[in-house]
Each structure stands twice: as C-alpha cells, then as structure tokens.
C-alpha cells in the first residue's frame, strides 16, 4: 500500500522515537510504500524551528532513516474536496493525485472529509486495522 503521513505524525514519531507512532512509521517503511509531500516536510521543519529549535537535528536524522517517495503538493486545484483548514488542501490534493491508499493523520479536519480514496485514518485506527 502507498501510505502518506501527515505533519503531526512525523513530528510525534521524530520527537518520541520509542513511541507507538514511531514504531508504526517504522512498520510502514518496512512493509509498505511511504510517501511524503513537500508541503508536509516544509511544515515539519517550520514547526521544529518554531517550537523545538534545539532539536532541529532530530527531523533531519529521522527523515534520512527511512526510504520514502517525495511528491509535489499542488496549491491550486479546484476539484479537491473542501477542508476547514485551507492550508491542508495541498496535502489532500497530493494524496488524491498520487493515488495514496491511506493518509494517516491526527488532524480532525481530515476526518470530517467524506471521500472513499484515500482512506483517512488516525494512528490507532491504522494500527488496529493493519498491524
């Protein structure tokens, strides 16, 4: 399966490397195709710079730990479902265009979207269904 991780998942997994989320990311990287978009990586780096400047090395080390496909997130697409937080629309567009099977996120704005593909799951939902 092609699986995309949202910003909050990458931040949690990279900050807490012995956490369930970190183990889930490792499982995905070992057993599926991990896909990240440029917007997510930029958001992660921005959050680190703002909230965890002393730990900025964590994200670089984490992102080099696993193989993943990097995809472009388009900004101007009208045929993508609306989402409350407009800054998340490029992430959703990327997941749809890149034919992602599962988007894993803790962001409740994504759970309110009614689409069939990709499947949008929280980390605990993914773990229960696929691990």
In percent terms, what proportion of residues is strand? 5-15%
SS-derived structural category = alpha/beta
Shape summary: globular
The fold-level CATH name is: Rossmann fold
Task: Note the total helix count.
Answer: 7
Question: N-to-C SSE series?
Answer: EHHEHHEHEHEH
- The helix content is 40-55%
**Could you list the spans in which at least 5 consecutive residues all have pLDDT below 50?**
none
Number of strands: 5
CATH C-level name: Alpha Beta
Number of domains: 1
Please name the fourth-level CATH homologous superfamily. 5'-nuclease
Strand order of the largest sheet: 3-2-1-4-5
- Main pleated sheet: 5 strands, parallel
CATH level-two architecture: 3-Layer(aba) Sandwich
Distance between the termini: 13 Å
Radius of gyration: 14 Å
Mean pLDDT score:
90
Walkthrough of the structure:
- The chain is α/β, with parallel strands linked by helices and 131 residues long.
- It has one domain (2-130): 3-Layer(aba) Sandwich (Rossmann fold).
- 50% of the residues lie in helices and 14% in strands.
- It has seven helices and five strands; from the N terminus they run E-H-H-E-H-H-E-H-E-H-E-H.
- The chain has helices at 7-15, 20-31, 38-51, 56-65, 89-97, 108-111, 123-130; strands at 2-5, 33-37, 69-71, 102-104, 119-121.
- It has a five-stranded parallel sheet.
- Strand 4 (102-104), helix 6 (108-111) and strand 5 form a beta-alpha-beta unit.
- Helix 1 (7-15) packs across helix 2, helix 1 crosses helix 3 and helix 1 packs across helix 4.
- The chain is globular, with a radius of gyration of 14 Å.
- The protein starts with a strand and ends with a helix.
- The model has no long low-confidence stretch (mean pLDDT 90).
């Amino acid at each position: 399966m092609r699986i995309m991780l949202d910003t909050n998942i990458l931040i949690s997994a990279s900050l807490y490397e012995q956490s369930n989320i970190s183990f889930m990311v490792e499982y995905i990287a070992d057993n599926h195709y991990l896909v990240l978009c440029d917007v997510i990586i930029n958001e992660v780096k921005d959050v680190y710079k703002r909230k965890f400047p002393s730990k900025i090395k964590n994200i670089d080390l984490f992102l080099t730990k696993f193989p993943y496909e990097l995809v472009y997130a388009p900004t101007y697409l009208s045929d993508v479902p609306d989402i409350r937080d407009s800054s998340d629309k490029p992430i959703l567009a990327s997941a749809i265009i890149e034919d992602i099977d599962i988007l894993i996120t803790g962001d409740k704005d994504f759970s309110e979207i009614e689409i069939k593909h990709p499947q949008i799951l929280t980390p605990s939902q993914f773990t229960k269904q696929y691990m």
